[in-house]
Amino acid sequence: MQPKLIAGDSLRFSSSVPDYPASDGYTLTYKLVRRDAAGGPITITAAADGDGYLVTVLPATTASWLPGKYTWAAYVTKTGERYTVETGEVEILPDPAVSGAPLDMRSQARKALDDLNAARATWVATGGRVKRYSIAGRDIEYKDAAEIDMEINYWTKQVGEEQTSADLEAGRRPKNRILTRFVRPS
Fold it and tell me: Is pTM beyond 0.70 here?
């Protein structure tokens, strides 16, 4: 299961459970439960695909899914048997194509970094006279620019880690990876 899905997008992936192949009569089911218990659980039953399984959910179905963070479990069943084979987390994001309200899909780390950069710019523009800021609903007071810079460094690292994860999920090489090649002298 992918870590993020936009409501209204198709969901399609293959899954393999070698110990419990579909050809032996097992059925694979995914159950998603929203962390804050809003709305009901989402149940997805995979189709048999040889020994493996194919999960296909149409956009009309995912469009009705409530955005939020979910915990999921994948389990196989066969007459009188049930085995949990995998667990994880998925975030269902709102569909920007149908949202009429303002929609901010930035991560918490990106929001914090953007707010801190704005606070730093205000600090510089006012010569350090403005020291109290409201960031992400919290009031924060800084003694000096070094405190803001320390927070910026922390959140820059968090955003970088998110980007690295996104690159890996998309099959791209992370930008922070250094490749080396050793050559034997002739």
Answer: no
pLDDT digits (tens, 9 = 90+) for 49-85: 999 999 999 999 999 999 888 999 999 999 999 999 9
For residues 112 and 136, the answer to whether their CB atoms sit within 8 Å is yes
**Non-local CB neighbours of 90 within 8 Å, separated by 6+ positions:** 1, 2, 3, 4, 5, 32, 69, 70, 72
For residue 139, list its beta bridge partners: 134
Query: What distance in Å separates the CA atoms of residue 164 and residue 175, rounded to the nearest whole number?
Result: 7
DSSP 48-63: EETTEEEEEE-HHHHT
For the chain, the domains span 4-93, 108-169
Residues 123 and 145: beta-carbon distance below 8 Å: yes
Residue with tokens 């962390």: 35
Partnered with residue 29 across adjacent β-strands are 45, 75
Class of domain 4-93: mainly beta
